[in-house]
TrEMBL record, chain A:
Keyword Cell membrane: yes
Family annotation (Gene3D superfamilies): Periplasmic binding protein-like II
InterPro entries, A to Z: Bact_solute-bd_prot1, SBP, TAT_signal
Keywords: Cell membrane, Lipoprotein, Membrane, Palmitate, Signal
PROSITE patterns documented for this protein: PROKAR_LIPOPROTEIN, TAT
Signal peptide region: 1-28
Species this protein is from: Streptomyces rapamycinicus
UniProt protein name: Raffinose/stachyose/melibiose transport system substrate-binding protein
Superkingdom in the source lineage: Bacteria
UniProtKB/TrEMBL annotation, chain B:
InterPro entries: ABC_transporter_permease, MetI-like, MetI-like_sf
Protein name in UniProt: Sugar ABC transporter permease
Protein family per UniProt: Belongs to the binding-protein-dependent transport system permease family.
Region entry Disordered, spans: 1-22
Membrane topology listed for this record: Multi-pass membrane protein
Ranges for domain ABC transmembrane type-1: 91-306
Record GO biological process: transmembrane transport
Matching Gene3D superfamilies: MetI-like (1.10.3720.10)
Transmembrane segments: 34-54, 91-115, 127-152, 180-205, 226-250, 285-306
Keywords, sorted A to Z: Cell membrane, Membrane, Transmembrane, Transmembrane helix, Transport
One protein family per Pfam: BPD_transp_1
Subcellular location: Cell membrane
Main localization (coarse): membrane
Length: 460, 316
């Protein structure tokens, strides 16, 4: 001890010196991120070579998020078919779950050797950030060459558009196309609805009175579990779409115009959701129940309704057979349905890809008629359903196809709310949990959202 | 404090006084050679620890989304920690966790250690020890998943409560604003108790048996014996346990990531979780680094304080 103690200060001094050197060299070096103006020399104009067979030996690295069984099988089959058609092309597939892709794609894209084709999530947090950092290249010339610009409805294409600075969504260059479609809607238990003598609700008001009737008869109205935090966005989004209407929600999420999250429509939606929680329509203990538990409990016939995305049909159909139906609600009787939804993640070409033309041809292979059909045969909802795609009548897949057409062809698609700002997912999911638990008043809830929104607007 | 600093110097001076110059010079040469041996390790340490640490501090001074051009922020990211109530709450939550990760496990483990050593030759004692230590071995993700199921609205805990007529107490433990943080904390208690127990049992084994005999001869009972012999003998181990568990509490990430995502609301958000979330989720890399630096500073400070509190066991 007596020997050790005097040495301590010196050892500490050396450690401190090393630390200080490290810190100083670090801070003295240039700022993190790419140095300004070093934009990649991506070729964004000129003729497109549409025949990958003539491209020589090519390895295409593709990152996707198709880990669900149906999506995985479709992608696997299409990749195999592509390589069989063009033996000179090898596809190296990297498949990650949505959450994993979201957290790792940024690093992969900004590396020296990024993948050629990636699935980029729409909205400001992902695609907007990638475009701003010049990591993706516009695909307008491929859209023209392969006819995507006429095949896709413009409201689907616009979701993948950004101005080159990444600051304005829905206009500007096209940064990808999507293969699948998805909407949030109402799954219902056909037998239970019949036994309660209820008609299929078509509006928010009708839905709420069905909830009340189910509750009064002792049946759990909705299966809801928000421990994962994401279902909160969906339930609030659906209510907000119907209560606030199309223009208000679009203005808020696309950040156009003077709409505020504290406006009456959003406030009404928050009040409605709070009322549902207070009246017990959401069940008890929902903030401690997982999304899977909620889907499972609906699947086992424990409740009348489930508000979820079309992607859950693959889970529910085998369990409930023809006893499950799917619908989407309208703001008022006689109007077309309106709900949250959109398309699967966009297939995009990275800025540094060495074979952009092969990448373009590959994406076309995924989204052309054949690709859409392959997606459909593996149980996915294709973004543009091929004419000869006809699910068995009476199944939930048939319902979903009908609703998707009704919503997407009548301009009823509203963007997911987490697209709004990079931090909006966090803010909104936490706030919904507090609202439904009675910790936030509807008014405080909306001003929480507005403060996130305005700080994003100020920082842009 | 003054006494401890003074004593060694006082001791050294008479030993080194007569032959001061030669000893010093020789000593220095030997020391530098010693550092040469440490050089490879030092290089590894620099490349993999100090340089990233420097980068961490550097990035914390910028506004950066992780991919596009960054802008100078100065100390903005740090002032945000002080100003943002959610971030402040995160740090407060981790101090609450110290109670569950450190204080309770150490108290319980001390009790258990004292009981098991007094129990003499207990059959299969090593099996019990292994069982109590087991949580330390299991991956945190598995632990968190298992406990999520236990705490679920229809989980084992609530089923048991209902079975014994405590229906009113049953609740979604991780989904209730008032119970979520303590529920996460109790998982920590369950985790850390094994580590503390193993440390303390080993420590008790090192306490000279004569001390216990002497205590017995003096007519000390179990309680007197514990406070007079066992507790003073375990001071070193308690410090180690305190250091390890406090650090575990402060850097808790995976538990919250799997079990609650920081929810409900932000009731269980913790600095380490925020670091991950901001760096990889919301594209606020500069802010994430500032939190990481602050968290590191807090951990270093607390560890330093714990070692200061530690009695000079070498004196005996």
């Amino acid at each position: 001890m007596a020997e050790r103690t005097p040495r301590h200060p010196r050892r500490r001094l050396i450690a401190a010196a090393a630390l200080a050197t490290g810190v100083l060299t670090g801070v003295a070096a240039c700022s993190p991120g790419p140095s300004g103006g070093s934009a990649t020399s991506a070729k964004t104009s000129g003729p497109v070579a549409t025949d990958p067979a003539k491209a020589g030996k090519v390895t295409l690295t593709v990152w996707d998020q198709n880990t669900d069984p149906g999506a995985d099988a479709a992608t696997e089959a299409l990749n195999k078919a592509f390589m069989a058609k063009y033996p000179n092309v090898t596809i190296k597939r990297v498949s990650r779950s949505f959450a994993d892709l979201k957290t790792t794609l940024k690093l992969a894209l900004s590396s020296a050797n990024p993948p050629d084709v990636v699935q980029a999530n729409q909205g400001y947090p992902d695609m907007g950030a990638f475009v701003k950092a010049k990591l993706l290249q516009p695909v307008d010339r491929y859209a023209k060459a392969y006819g995507w610009d006429t095949a896709f409805p413009s409201q689907l294409l616009d979701l993948n558009r950004f101005t080159p600075d990444g600051k304005t969504w829905e206009t500007g260059d096209l940064y990808g196309v999507s293969q699948t479609g998805e909407i949030i809607g109402v799954y219902y238990n056909k037998a239970k609805l019949k036994s309660l003598g209820l008609p299929l609700p078509t509006t928010l008001g009708g839905f709420e009175s069905a909830l009340a009737k189910a509750k009064a008869s002792g049946l759990q109205p909705l299966s809801y579990g928000d421990a994962d935090k994401s279902p909160g966005i969906h339930i609030f989004g659906v209510i907000q779409a119907l209560a606030a209407g199309k223009p208000e929600v679009r203005k808020l999420v696309f950040d156009e115009g003077d709409a505020k999250w504290t406006d009456s429509g959003t406030l009404k939606a928050a009040t409605t959701l709070r009322r549902w929680a207070d009246k017990g329509y959401l069940g008890s203990g929902f903030n401690g129940k997982s999304k899977d538990q909620a889907v499972d409990s609906f699947g086992r016939g424990k409740s009348l309704f489930l508000l979820e995305g079309t992607w859950q049909s693959a889970v529910l159909a085998p369990k409930m057979k023809k006893n499950v139906g799917f619908t989407a609600l309208s703001p008022a009787a006689g109007q077309p349905p309106l709900t949250q939804g959109g398309e699967g993640l966009a297939w995009s070409v990275t800025a540094k890809s060495k074979h952009p033309d092969v990448a373009g041809a590959y994406i076309d292979f995924l989204v052309n008629k054949n690709g859409m059909k392959a997606a459909a045969t593996h149980g996915n909802l294709p973004a543009i359903p091929p004419a000869d795609y006809k699910p068995t009548p009476g199944t939930v897949d048939a319902d979903i196809l009908t609703r998707w057409k009704a919503v997407s062809e009548k301009d009823g698609l509203l963007p997911y709310l987490d697209y709004t700002t990079p931090t909006f997912y966090d803010t909104l999911t936490a706030a919904v949990q507090e609202l439904t638990a009675g910790h936030l008043t509807p008014k405080a809830f909306t001003s929480r959202l507005q403060s996130d929104y305005s700080s994003f607007q100020n920082s842009r | 404090m003054a006494a401890t600093a003074h004593r060694p110097t006082a001791r050294k001076r008479p030993a080194g006084a007569p032959t001061r110059e030669p000893v010093r010079r020789r000593g220095r040469v030997i020391q530098w050679k010693g550092y040469l041996y440490a050089l490879p390790a030092l290089i590894v340490l620099t490349v993999f620890l100090l340089v990233p640490l420097g980068q961490l501090v550097q990035i914390s001074l910028f506004h950066w989304d992780g991919i596009s051009v960054s802008t100078w922020a100065g100390f903005d990211n740090y002032t945000e920690i002080a100003r943002d109530p959610q971030l402040r709450a995160g740090f407060l939550h981790s101090f609450v966790l110290i109670l569950f990760f450190s204080v309770i496990p150490i108290a319980l483990a001390l009790m258990l250690a004292a009981v098991t050593t007094r129990a003499g030759r207990l059959r299969g004692v090593s099996v019990f020890r292994a069982m109590i230590f087991l949580p330390q071995v299991v991956a945190m993700v598995v632990t968190a998943t298992a406990w999520t199921a236990i705490y679920a609205p229809d989980g084992v805990l609530n089923t048991a409560l209902r079975a014994i007529g405590l229906e009113a107490v049953a609740r979604p433990w991780l989904g209730d604003f008032s119970t979520a943080l303590p529920a996460v904390g109790l998982i920590g208690t369950w985790l850390e108790i094994g580590l503390c127990l193993v440390l303390f049992i080993a420590g008790i084994g090192q306490i000279p048996a004569e001390l216990y005999e002497a205590a017995k001869l003096d007519g000390a009972g179990a309680v007197r014996e514990f406070f007079a012999v066992t507790l003073p003998g375990l001071r070193g181990q308690i410090t180690v346990a305190l250091t390890l568990t406090v650090i575990a509490a402060l850097r808790t990430f995976d538990l919250v990531y799997v079990a609650t995502h920081g929810g409900p609301g932000n009731a269980t958000s913790l600095p380490a979780y925020e670091v991950y979330n901001r760096a990889f989720g919301t594209g606020q890399v500069g802010s994430a680094c500032a939190i990481a630096v602050t968290l590191t500073a807090v951990i270093l400070l607390l560890t330093f304080l714990i070692t200061k509190v530690q009695p000079q066991e070498d004196e005996t």
